[in-house]
Amino acid sequence: MKKLVLLLIILTLASPALAGTRVLMTTSLGTITLDLDEARAPETVKNFLAYADAGFYDGTIFHRVIKGFMIQGGGFDTALKRKATRPPIRNEAGNGLENVRGTIAMARTNVVDSATSQFFINLVDNDFLNHRGNDARGFGYAVFGKVVDGMDIVDRIARVPTEQRGGPFANLPRQQVVIKSIRRAE
């Protein structure tokens, strides 16, 4: 009996930490499963889930696709109209999570604390987006989760042909990639 208890303790300690909230991002090209890191990015995850739970992302598009860099969405509908958002959140880029391939991070303007609904998924390791300091130039972009299934879908989105339309549509997919829904996994 002691050996069984010891084995259970060892297995418990050796197993990876419990994942945060898992969400399914259903797109017109397939489904992407994400694990969100509530422990290291609590405000960012809370913000993302508030938008997801309200159905905000339903019918939005990936409006910026840059092969070898990232795919960005969560702000514009299929008519290319910017959706009204909640107030910006505090940037949690100093949380120790890095912008590596397959991570999801918040998009923002040049203002450090300006992220609202838009996010991006890194296609490669983008070290230059990591937190390097507390000034505006070095603050970085807050990673808050990672793709755990469907990276093939992310890569498929990255390969869609794009066009230049100016403004936020400098790398707009010619054929829309629609986010049908983002929901918590059961």
TrEMBL record:
GO biological process terms on file: protein folding
Reactions that this protein is recorded to catalyse: [protein]-peptidylproline (omega=180) = [protein]-peptidylproline (omega=0)
Annotated ranges, domain PPIase cyclophilin-type: 27-184
PROSITE patterns listed in its UniProt record: CSA_PPIASE_1, CSA_PPIASE_2
Keyword presence, Isomerase: yes
Any single Pfam family the record assigns to this protein: Pro_isomerase
E.C. no: 5.2.1.8
Keyword set, alphabetical order: Isomerase, Rotamase, Signal
First and last residue of the signal peptide: 1-19
SUPFAM superfamilies: Cyclophilin-like (SSF50891)
A GO molecular-function descriptor: peptidyl-prolyl cis-trans isomerase activity
Annotated CDD domains: cyclophilin_EcCYP_like
Protein task: PPIases accelerate the folding of proteins. It catalyzes the cis-trans isomerization of proline imidic peptide bonds in oligopeptides.
Family label: Belongs to the cyclophilin-type PPIase family.
Name the UniProt record assigns to this protein: Peptidyl-prolyl cis-trans isomerase
Source organism per UniProt: Geothermobacter hydrogeniphilus
Species classification: Bacteria, Pseudomonadati, Thermodesulfobacteriota, Desulfuromonadia, Desulfuromonadales
